[in-house]
Amino acid sequence: MNRYLISLTIVYLTVSAFGASASTDFAFTEENCQKPDLMQPSFHKGLFFPNGELRGERSLALLMPAEDIVSSALRVYQRDERMAQRIFLDSQSGQFIGDQKYLFDPKTHSEELFGLPRINIASVLDHLQEMLAKGFARVISYTDAGHLHLKIPIGVKEEILATTDDENEQLLAMLKHPETLYLYHTAEKVKLLDHNDEPLSPELGWWYLNRNVIGSQLGNESIYTVVKQGDGYNTYKNPEGYTEFGPSIYIQSNKKGCFQITHKGEPINLDLSFMMPASDPEVLAASPER
User: What is the DSSP letter of 105?
Assistant: First the structure.
């Protein structure tokens, strides 16, 4: 049985964005979308490594072989720990809400909650599914396709900022704008090149050239990739005429994840968050800076 396959009750949500002409469905499991308990053990970067001797590599500062990226993501998928500040479904408002304030101490944490519009969730899930189908990513994980940056035309951003001084209204207007783009960097922690900056294999060379993935609002256009000329790791920043806005969105697949996509006929469950996954607490405790 595929290791991503689990039995879940799925809710399909229809999203209307810009009127009747623009709608989509996405799947989520309501039971798995509850507000997280910050006092429970949560996902951290050290879980990508097998149990054993504490190593500096568990900070994820070093790149990993592609096969290790896949095996570690499958192992993490089956664990109970999930991202502590994952986006959840608020039963009263019906909104999917996330915390924008980094968690240092769960006992004293003060939340800064913000509702992520459904149009953005639907767009992200469509992009991820297409990304896997086209081979631009191998796994939905912090180590591969695990985060995205939001982009908007410079002129549109200036117009929105001039319209209102309310930061939440500004952010919502940009998030919902039809020209908003989503930039993903895949192979985030994958070793693709040798010490001479040459691809380790033709397959990894292709992945290197296709690791900057751009998706449109609601998938109105197919995802496509771009190359950053002259950059050692081919990390693209802004499409021409665009600028970044808002928080990054982080993605991690897990058997109990709130949202669901499919790949090769099998479900993949995942969580979204405004906050980067926490670092390995053992590595932090062993750091000479502490």
Answer: -
